[in-house]
Amino acid sequence: MISNAFREEWFSNPQKNILAGLTTAFALVPECIAFALVAQLNPLMGLYGAFIICALTAIFGGRPGMISGAAGSMAVVIVALVVQHGVQYLLATVVLGGVLMAAFGLLRLGKLIRMVPHPVMLGFVNGLAIIIAMAQLEHFREATPQGHQWLQGTPLWIMCGLVALTMAIVYLLPRLTRAVPPALVAILGVGLLGYGLHLPTRTLGDLAQMAGGLPALHIPTVPLTMETLRIILPYASLMAMVGLLETLLTFNLTDDITNTRGQPNRECIALGAANIAAGLFGGMGGCAMIGQTMINLSSGGRSRLSGLVAGVMILLFVLFLSPLIAHIPLAALVGVMFVVAQETFAWGSLRVLGKVPKQDAIVIVAVTVITVFTDLATAVLCGIVIAALSFAWQHALEMRTEVDDNEAGVRTYRPHGTLFFASAAHFQELFAPASDPARVVLDCRHLHMADHSAIAAMESLYERYEKAGKHLQVTHLSPRSQALLRRAGVDVAA
Predict the structure, then answer these.
(1) Alpha carbons 334 and 100: distance in angstroms, whole number
(2) DSSP β-ladder status, 471-475 and 439-443
(3) What CA–CA distance (Å, rounded) separates 474 from 53?
(4) Phi, then psi, of 337 in degrees rounded to 5
(5) Distances in Å between the alpha carbon of 369 and those of 109, 363, 364, 477?
(6) pLDDT at 373 over 70
(7) In whole angstroms, what is the distance from residue 290 CA to residue 27 CA?
(8) 413 beta partners
(9) Which of 94, 139, 200, 357 is such that its CA lies 20 to 30 A from the CA of 450?
(10) Residue ranges of E strands in 137-294
């Protein structure tokens, strides 16, 4: 049984997974270089981080087929730290962030991702699709003495033509054959075309110098003091939170696409260990990358082999192959990423906006917009808060009561619903101590008490009837509600 599972995770359809990994590696390179430059780091740090994180999460992670690397969401978090304190503090932060990620998995908190509502997932996917597409527009600009300006004239037409050709190959090739990933054919085909015709267009080699040696073990040279911890802990915590959120959301999306179930806690532990290794070997921190994951999945990558190949190929690019891949036009990678953005966007969410409850539509739009204009962590947290408040409000409106006056001199209330912070005020309005008879029965067989606000509401109701000189008898409390009241020292069952 173990042998079959191992074979399935590693060697199911090896040819397709190797080609998918190679395709993904080509897409990882410009992203990792760009993110390193955003964080004001040596591009090799982005490539080393991508190799280490991609390879280790592929080997030890809980989600075969998912691709992790030096992610842009992490780069944005660490810019200020690099500027103020330098690279060594960044590496220490990456190590500490990895420890926090691993601790999250060891505490088995990965299941908390189940609390993310589906509208938040849709907003997350849509927001990242827009970000992926918008990030490609930067490649349509060039550095000039007057600053970065949009391409014009022949360079613009060549860039647009190559992007269009790449997209056409990716869309049309599957109609002819599925033997090879269309993105790989597009990248290599457009690369050969650009090189053979000597087209004046920007290439991967124009981004940065990619040649280097093997990453070496290097303990971050920072003082081991509380002051250092005070500096790096906030950044490490934010890196861990952003990385775990993006990883677990991409994890869920991969589960849905492959119709399989991974192990979220194992993925968190592997991601943490990979970040620790990246920090110790001079690499950027990272997490799951939805764009590259989509490329891998659409290219047929389903096993751990595809992720391992992607990671190892990045190292081979750095060590041996940089002169070759330096000639690949950026337009080819831009075209592939435009296709990824189009395929990532949940177009079905636009059709259902008018059909789902209004609050769910608001969550989808809000998370999409916040993801684009701020960051993933803020967007997801805002989406969860909006969804939770909406749920609480809707649940509070369901509080109602039945009034029974069949017994002479006695009025019986039978409330239905959940008594909690959002419904406590409405619960109080259901009763009229001033006009009720001397004896009132509160039948709680359909009432569920949830929190301290429920205790306070019940205590307040008892006091209102006591002040009115009337007796309130509470019956049919559930064992849980009785325990809740008893623990708070409230006795209303007399």
Answers:
(1) 34
(2) parallel
(3) 60
(4) -70, -30
(5) 28, 10, 9, 45
(6) yes
(7) 12
(8) 403, 442
(9) 357
(10) 141-144, 147-150, 287-288
CA proximity to 291, closest of 68, 74, 56: 68
According to DSSP, the residues that pair with 54 across neighbouring strands are none
Under 8 Å between Cβ of 311 and 24? no
Is 27:184 a contact under the CB 8 Å cutoff? Answer: no
Per the document, the length of the chain is 494
- Using alpha carbons, select from 291, 293, 241, 295 the residue that is nearest to residue 268: 241
Determine contact, residues 272/104, Cβ cutoff 8 Å.
yes
3-state secondary structure 287-298: EECHHHHHHHHH
- 8 A C-beta contact, residue 32 and residue 135: no
| Structure token digits, residue 390 | 């909406």
**Rounded to whole angstroms, what are the CA distances from 177 to 53, 172, 181?**
32, 9, 9
Residue 492 confidence class, pLDDT cut points 50, 70, 90? low
Tell me the average pLDDT across 36-53.
87
What burial letters (b/e) apply to 144-154, b meaning 16+ CB within 10 Å? eeeeeeebeee
| Mean pLDDT along residues 455-482 | 89
User: What is the distance between the alpha carbons of residues 94 and 85, in angstroms, rounded to a whole number?
Assistant: 14
Residue 494: band (very low, low, confident or very high) from pLDDT cuts 50, 70, 90: very low
Token look-up 């004239």 returns 153
Give the Cα separation of 48 and 212 in Å (integer): 10
Number of Cβ within 10 Å of residue 40's Cβ equals: 13
Mean pLDDT, range 161-181, rounded to an integer: 90
Q: Are 203 and 187 in contact (CB under 8 A)?
A: no
Q: What is the pLDDT of residues 412-462, one digit of tens each?
A: 999 999 999 999 999 999 999 999 999 999 999 999 998 889 999 988 998
Query: What residues are paired with 8 via a beta bridge?
Result: none
Q: pTM higher than 0.85, yes or no? A: no
| CB of 54 closer than 8 Å to CB of 311 | yes
Handedness of CA 175, 180, 183, 184 (dihedral sign): negative
Percent helix, strand and coil across the chain, each rounded to 5? 65, 10, 25
Instruction: Pull the structure tokens for residue 78.
Output: 């660490």
